[in-house]
Design a protein that fits this description.
Layout (H helix, E strand, L loop, with lengths): L2 H27 L9 H12 L11 H20 L4 H38 L2
């Protein structure tokens, strides 16, 4: 089986399906906004890191990601319920992302060092 062709076909299909979904959504709203911002991406990143996903890969579970997403959603709802200004919500979310990344970074650094040593041992004859 040619993995490259299958992988390329999957990416093409995903792109076409995403474009069709976006077009249908814009049609249903009778408007389109090309830039939705990074809010969904940042939310997903923080939720995954809170849920125990390792930045280097190989660790994490769907249940942990769901718990991280629920925790972050509750935090955002609390901020909305207290009528906190939007910049406070952004500041707290950014700080949370920074803290979670800092706590995950030591494992990332050791993983990167192991990969570098493994690559050097393979490259040198």
């Amino acid at each position: 089986m040619r993995v490259d062709r299958v992988l390329l076909a999957i990416f093409v299909f995903a792109g076409v399906a995403s474009a069709a979904a976006g077009a249908l959504h814009a049609y249903s709203l009778s408007s389109a906004q090309p830039d939705l911002g990074f809010a969904p991406l940042i939310f997903a990143t923080i939720a995954a890191l809170l849920g125990g996903v390792n930045l280097a890969g190989g660790r994490g579970s769907p249940l942990g990601i769901a718990a991280g997403a629920l925790s972050l959603a509750i935090l955002q709802e609390i901020l909305a319920a207290t009528a906190a200004p939007q910049y406070w919500s952004d500041l707290i979310t950014g700080t949370l992302l920074l803290l979670v990344t800092i706590f995950a970074a030591p494992r990332l650094y050791s993983w990167r060092q192991r990969r570098r040593v493994a690559a050097d041992s393979v490259a040198s004859p």
